[in-house]
Fold this protein.
Amino acid sequence: MDSTLIGWIPAAIWDVYSLGQKKTVQKIQKALGQGGFGVLW
């Protein structure tokens, strides 16, 4: 039980982190797609 919990907690944290990263990337891509790219150049 303990070893399962120890393995599950970081996996859950990583899952949430990965989802957050994915949404951030999508926001950036959306901004770039709307002409936000010109701001970088």
Q: What stands out?
A: Residues 18 and 37 are 24 Å apart (CA to CA). The longest helix spans residues 2-40.
